[in-house]
Predict the structure.
Amino acid sequence: MSGLQFFWFLLIGVLFSGYFFFEGFDYGVGMAVQTLAHNEDEKDQIVATIGPVWDGNEVWLLTAGGAMFASFPYWYASLFSGYYLILFVVLFGLIIRGVSFEFRHKVPLKQKQRWNWTLSIGSFIVPFFLGVMFISMVKGMPIDAQGNMTATFGDYFNLFSIVGGVAVVLLTYLHGLNYIALKTEGAVRQRARNYAQFLYWVLYAGLVVFAVLLFFETDFFKLHAVATLALVVALVVLTVVAHVASFKGTELVAFLASGISLVVVVALLFQGLFPRVLISSISPKYDLLIKTASSSPYTLKVMSIVAITLVPFVLAYTAWAYYIFRKRIKQPVVVGEK
Amino acid sequence: MSIVTLARFQFAMTTIFHFFFVPFSIGTVLIVAILETCYVVTKNEQYKQLTKFWGNIMLLSFAVGVVTGIIQEFQFGMNWSDYSRFVGDIFGAPLAIEALLAFFMESTFLGLWMFTWDRVSKKLHLLFIWLVVVGSMASALWILAANSFMQHPVGYVIRHGRAEMVNFFAVITNAQFFYEYGHVITGAITMGGIIVAGLSAFQLLKKDKLEKTTVALYKKTVRLGLVISLVGSISVMGVGDLQMKALIKEQPMKFAAMEGAYKDSGDPAAWTLIGWANEAKHEEVFGIKIPYMLSILSYDKLSGSVKGMDSANKALIKKYGKRNYYPMVNMMFWSFRVMAGFGALMFLVSALGLFFTRKKKAILYEHKWMLWILGMMTFTPFIANTCGWLITELGRYPWTVYGLFTIKQSVSPNVSATSLIISNTVYFLLFTTLAATMVSLVIRELKKGPEYEEQQLQLANQASVDPFDKGAF
């Protein structure tokens, strides 16, 4: 494995981390629209916290997908075709939720509730099915010598992958609640904190189940015992930090801790895969490796130059956008017939 | 049905639907940026109302365009995994760059633009929308660089059973790429102009019921839209002409199919205005011909012959081996005529429309039938764009990458027909719903009119609402 190949494996991990960190709270906020708000004004207030930034956050996913295509075409091809129906459902969720932001405040008041629902349901579907995909992926899937996956229902949906899906939903929901607490004023802010404080107790139980299943269902603890253990411990510590911060009312700390815990989950999965990118449950010799699944050295070099040049600009103006929208949101900003 | 057919159908459906909104957004965002520039320069509040009004319609198009675009990126891996394996080394690069360079830019600055009216300085706010224009035009650049490689592969070698990039510079300076980009961007600009002029014309039909100030606003955007579509349509015809001439050399089969010519033409070549082909027997059923015309179109002179599909077929068999090289001839022939016909019509309507709305004698507003024609023009760019892509993509048959890789080789071998039928059905229903919602919301925005938001603001008196209050961090 060359240095460039390793760099791109790392970069794909970073892009998915960025995706879960940023878009993660958007999903949480989306789910909160129908579960946290008590009335239409509160819904508007909740949506307004991500109104200007959600679309930019989603680009992390597109960049991760595009970068995977460019740097590891065999990984991209096997993963996306193998998880055809799962990704189809993810796309469905992304579409119904993406249009909801624009539609919900342009439709007549009577129809608004419909687009609140699509926003919340879409925001639930995406993290759940991505969780199922990534967890079943690290467990290993029936991949043949040509790299084609021919899986059955049980390969996609089993105890481990469903626990994984629920865990990702829970993590993004909590991340969203922490974000709402950070970005709002009034009743919604307090309620978001109350919800989070309760749900963290559920998450502890979930993490224990997840860690046990990780031990039995994957080879992570055998292959990279130290790193796996360290990251699992980090996940638990971050959860405790976020929980305590939520009680203490240090909302920025809670938000950062829940965001970083999503990053740690991605790191955990990627280090467990290493040096593979896909694990075959048929035979280890059919595993897709970083070494063999990547693009040519020339392409990786060109893409490295492009990425190193562009990423700082993207980070700079993203940070600027968040700085401009740094204020708390008190009341709905939507102007329209009320 | 075979998985190849189902996957092709899906690609066609998702791409056509997506491409309704891409040029719509690129074109209208440019007009919105121009309107806001007028506002910042003249400080005339009317321009601000117009910016917001057309901005709302642009945002609807953007929303649907963005979400349907995600399908595009995913479906290469989902439906065309063997294609992705073969060509990912080259094809993935522009896609990744598109996301990194263009998508981040357009979505971040669009978010800033939407939510910072009167919150940042006017010039900074104007900068935001122009950055969205740059971002949206840059995204078209990279995706078309990828498509151009499929039409005319350059800068690669075949190694390790796949196409590997050896010259990035060659990939992004592909001649085909300049034609495609020019064609798509000028087409999008034309579309923006036609849509704005057309929708304004529809509103002017009931001008007796509108306020005088509102009527004046619509008259402004009719003129602005027509100026833009005039410039756009002249450019698009120019680029299209160059592109055709290149096609004769690069993809003679595509060119011949667009002209419905099976046999080689005589010298000088006659042009078939309308006709029909029997695709099974590879022969023309009937055709109305204009002498000399094809020589003029192809070479700008009164002589010169072009190859028909039969000779192109022979040449392709000799070069690449035996298989069916004939594309869907009638579809190509008629798509070309509809596209070029509507293109010419857009030019004509723009030119005449400007003439009839001139200050001295603006008779267009007095005649309902003229307003109707201009209004109905709104729909033509959607049809013309679709036809243009049908020609480009169907004409590449049987290749996904011209001369290198076929459609049959490209499809995902492990995706079942059932999966494809499920996704096709759901996409179809979803797109129908989205399109219906989109149309009803555009009509709703139009009914509100450009002065609606201002009135609402005055009613609400805003003072009590301050969304940006205390610092969070």
Notes: The longest helix of chain B spans residues 3-42. Residues 258-327 of chain B form one domain. Chain B has 16 helices and seven strands.
